[in-house]
Write a structure and sequence with these properties.
Distance between the termini: 94 Å
Order of helices and strands: H
Number of strands: 0
Oligomer: single chain
Number of helices: 1
Strand content: under 5%
Length: 64
């Protein structure tokens, strides 16, 4: 019986170790994705600003 308990405890410890490693990896992935979202939001703001400037310039043209 003691060998079974020891074996099961070893399996549980290994599961906890794997889960801990997975949490670390997920945190790293989450941080990377947050940085990517920020970069894309900044890029989007720049593009919108450029488009607004272009539209403003087009509006100034006398196209009649």
């Amino acid at each position: 019986m003691s060998d079974e308990v020891t074996e099961r405890l070893g399996e549980l410890e290994e599961g906890v170790r794997r889960a801990g490693a997975l949490v670390v990896r997920l945190r790293e992935d989450n941080e990377r994705l947050r940085r990517e979202v920020k970069r894309l939001e900044d890029e989007r703001r720049q593009v919108v600003t450029q488009i607004d400037a272009i539209l403003k310039d087009i509006g100034k043209l006398d196209l009649s």
